[in-house]
Amino acid sequence: MPSNSGSRSPESMQLDLYSVGKYTPGAPLWKQLLWYFLGSPMTESRLLPFSAMKVQLLRSFGAQIGTGVRIKPGVRIKFPWRLTLGDYVWLGENAWIDNVAQISIESHVCISQQVYLCTGNHDWSKSEFSLITAPIHIETGSWLAARSCVGPGVTVGRGAVLTLGSVATQSLEPMKIYSGNPAVLIKVRVEIPFKAQPGVK
Amino acid sequence: MPSNSGSRSPESMQLDLYSVGKYTPGAPLWKQLLWYFLGSPMTESRLLPFSAMKVQLLRSFGAQIGTGVRIKPGVRIKFPWRLTLGDYVWLGENAWIDNVAQISIESHVCISQQVYLCTGNHDWSKSEFSLITAPIHIETGSWLAARSCVGPGVTVGRGAVLTLGSVATQSLEPMKIYSGNPAVLIKVRVEIPFKAQPGVK
Amino acid sequence: MPSNSGSRSPESMQLDLYSVGKYTPGAPLWKQLLWYFLGSPMTESRLLPFSAMKVQLLRSFGAQIGTGVRIKPGVRIKFPWRLTLGDYVWLGENAWIDNVAQISIESHVCISQQVYLCTGNHDWSKSEFSLITAPIHIETGSWLAARSCVGPGVTVGRGAVLTLGSVATQSLEPMKIYSGNPAVLIKVRVEIPFKAQPGVK
Fold first, then answer.
1. Residue B169 belongs to a domain with what CATH number?
2. What pLDDT, on a 0 to 100 scale, did the predictor assign at position B3?
3. Would C170 be classed as within a structural domain?
4. Quick one: pLDDT at residue B154?
5. How many inter-chain contacts (B to C, CB under 8 Å) are there?
6. A→C interface, C-beta within 8 Å
7. Which chains neighbour B (Cβ–Cβ under 8 Å, 3 or more pairs)?
8. Distance from the CA of B161 to the CA of which of B138, B147, B183, C160 falls in 20 to 30 A?
9. Chain C residues with beta carbon closer than 8 angstroms to that of B113
10. Is B9 within a domain?
């Protein structure tokens, strides 16, 4: 038996053996530190309520961001270089984009207040509790309502809705509404097109 | 087809068409800015743990507040002019009163830590994703436990309890206890009156 | 009838009668204030990402902490003198240890981001809404995933897992995985030992 077995669990994980596996942060250390100490406090600041400067800042750190994007105060982004936002994306107050893996958000998506997007996981079947990361993909026209939460590897389908406080660890199908923890399908989303005209669908 | 159709969803919302509908913030811009940049940081501050100054501040911005109210540090209030608190109301640490619509809390109510009260919604059936707001009414003697969450339009009945981390998007009946996400009725609340005396019920 | 009965609920709690019962904070007032105004802001600071100084600080306020402990930024601890951490414990970003009662975390435990550990409760069957506190005990090798929540009096058994955003108000059995709100058993955890060798289990 190992000498410090008293503090170890014989059958479950041992964090002194922890391994990040193949994971890399995707940017040199100086860039990570610069983002952490200077950039991130700016996107999180309540004193910068307007979006333009924050969008420029994120782009300068490698984020790909379209037009018409609104970033509310208190938004926390782990790694801008692993973030893609389309056009007219909203990031609500205190949303937390925890993108150790890539997070891609297509156009016309609303991420409401306090949403948490989690891309990190651990292999609980291994004593070394290896880090597992998986991207999140959020398709056009979807809405993650306030305080909802999305787990690693999830795809939120086109036009899907996740309701207030719901938790999704499985992918959401297009044009469907999910609710609860765990989130389950509760309704189909049907939209009335804006000023529908002939030839414009 | 419109020229930027590539970034638009044909069937779901288009945030460049976003409309706040009939919504108004209920105060002139200068007052909103003054609250956002000066008032709100004070109610949120960890350096002002005592309630008296915060109660006065909220009243000066239009909140109606009774006696014996306790406001813990980290409380965020969107619009004081849309807030009514009775007597002996407690707002716990980091509670978030997101009152774009009126929030009325009657007397002897405990709002615990990290509770989120959400009065904003969106019409997901419309491409313009119109803002819909609805008031929250919390009746006497009820308790929203830590990290619980209440949605737009909900009435929390007299003496109702919402347990730790629960999410209520439907109204709660008086003297009943709700739990889970979605919150479901789990128990009837029965109270033993304090020092019951003849003639005092 | 009492004169201010208009603001009182006849059948449910009356917060002007509130009682903390037998509860005591476990430290003199000067120590509580020193922790609140000087110590706690340091463990919560985003400017102190490294653990060593925070571990020393917590020990100087009475916490019992082993070796190899990692404390991420944004961690909030109510009372260090009611905290015991074994070896190789991780406290994730913005975890909130609300230990009005004792919280004991054994070795090789991962408490992820935004986890909330709640030791305070109220007696909703009494008009005076008495404070009830109960300790939390988290055994070796367990994992509370991001944004999960554990209630008063809970024991998290050896090697148990509580998944993303789940809420546990009941104790969790060893080597089992719980999910949802309320958290329910979803799976048994089986671990492959690290470099299993003859004679080492």
1. 2.160.10.10
2. 39
3. yes
4. 98
5. 120
6. 1-2, 4, 7-17, 36-37, 40-41, 96, 98, 116, 118, 120, 122, 124-129, 149, 151, 167, 169, 180-182
7. A, C
8. C160
9. 98, 116, 118
10. no
Residue C8 lies in a domain: no
pLDDT band at residue A49, thresholds of 50, 70 and 90?
Answer: confident
Report the range of poorest mean pLDDT among A145-149, B38-42, C47-51, C98-102. C47-51
Average pLDDT taken over every residue of chain A: 91
Domain count, chain B: 2
Closest CB to A201 among B10, B98, B125: B10
Q: What are the helix and strand counts (H, E) for chain A?
A: 3, 19
Q: Do B85 and B132 belong together in one domain?
A: no
Residues in C whose CB is inside 8 Å of some CB of B read 1-2, 4, 7-17, 36-37, 40-41, 96, 98, 116, 118, 120, 122, 124-129, 149, 151, 167, 169, 180-182
> What's this model's pTM, rounded to 2 decimal places?
0.93
Residues from chain A that touch C141, judged by Cβ atoms under 8 A, are 9, 11-14
pLDDT at A7: 52
In the structure, what pLDDT confidence band is assigned to residue C43 with cuts at 50, 70 and 90?
very high
In a domain, residue A172? The reply is: yes
Chain B residues inside the 8 Å CB shell of C29: none
ipTM for the predicted complex: 0.91
> With 0-12 CB in 10 A as exposed, 13-18 as middle and 19+ as buried, what is A78?
buried
- pLDDT of A191 reads 74
Q: CA nearest A70 in B: which residue? A: B15
Boundaries of domain holding C92: 25-188
pLDDT at residue B193, rounded to an integer: 67
Chain C residues with at least one Cβ partner in A under 8 Å: 46-47, 49, 66, 68, 86-90, 106-110, 113-114, 140-143, 146-147, 158-159, 161, 163-167, 175, 177, 179-181, 189-194, 200-201
